[in-house]
Amino acid sequence: MRRQIQAALLLLTGSALLHISLLSQVYLRYVKEGLRPFLIASAALLLVLGLVSAVRDGFPFPSRRGDDESVDDEGVDDGHGHGHRDGPRVAWVLFLPVLALLLHAPPALGSYTAARETGNAVARVPEFGPLPDAGPVPLSLSGFIARVQQDRDRGLAGRTVLMTGFVTPAGPPAKDGTGTGAGTWYLSRLVVSCCAADSRSLRVRVHGKPAPPADTWVTVTGTWHPGGGALGTAAAAVAIDARTVRRVPQPVSPYQDTAPLPR
């Protein structure tokens, strides 16, 4: 019985990986696009191993075996004639995450994760090119943050930009009266180097428009919101005065790559 469970688990796990990586794009909720070939190869290997194991053990019609082998399948004899049957029973729990991938895949990370990290760390950009004359200028969140903190030429000053991300609610104001205040929230994006486990958040505070529900994907048009340090300094406020906020569908790839765009 134990070997039959192992074979079934291998087959289901391989099928689940193949479903999210080859037959759909659900895998982008968990890993970067470049890892797709490795997921497909892993799924194929698991399916082969599961089939070999199933054929070897006669699944689903197992062959008759002796008493000693039966004891090994059901559990380890404790020396008093009793076999421990916990192994196969516990193994069924492993089917739950596999069935979740097949029936209802967990969503991508969102505002709950973004609210717990405020680093806004982006790579250094050696040189920024000029922004297009026509506006609004489409920017990634990493590109906007990099220009706010690093562009000494103040290329964002007075320019209307357009950015897309998901909504992260602002925390409550502090007791001393400081804090996010009413009417502010964050446009967020998660950056991954490999997979969702190493994600980092990018957040731009939004002023001037009421917050949509958490995790709603929106496109925001507006201008840099001054405050704190000047543009092109590490202390510059990473914020935007919103003119329009438009709801959009979640992109197929919800995460942003690690490298910031220089524009």
Detailed description of the structure:
The protein is of the alpha/beta class and 263 residues long. It is 30% helix and 17% strand. It folds into two domains: 2-103, no CATH class; 111-247, Nucleic acid-binding proteins (OB fold (Dihydrolipoamide Acetyltransferase, E2P)). A hairpin with an 8-residue loop joins strand 3 (185-191) and strand 4 (200-207). A five-stranded mixed β-barrel has the order 2-3-4-6-5. The radius of gyration is 26 Å and the shape is elongated. It has seven helices and six strands.
Task: Draw up the topology in text.
Layout lengths: L1 H20 L14 H21 L10 H8 L11 H6 L3 H9 L7 H4 L22 E2 L2 H10 L9 E10 L15 E7 L8 E8 L9 E8 L14 E9 L16
Parallel strand pairs: 1-2, 4-6
Antiparallel strand pairs: 2-3, 2-5, 3-4, 5-6
Give the end-to-end Cα distance, rounded to a whole number of Å: 59 Å
Class of the largest domain, according to the CATH hierarchy? Mainly Beta
- Radius of gyration using CA atoms only: 26 Å
Mean pLDDT: 80
Strand content: 15-25%
Number of domain units = 2
SSE arrangement, N to C: HHHHHHEHEEEEE
Flag low-confidence runs: 66-78, 81-86, 173-182, 259-263
Identify the notable features of this structure and list them briefly.
single chain; 263 residues; alpha/beta; OB fold (Dihydrolipoamide Acetyltransferase, E2P); 2 domains; 5-stranded mixed β-barrel; 7 helices; 30% helix; elongated; disordered C terminus; TIGR03943 family protein; DUF1980_C; DUF1980; membrane; transmembrane
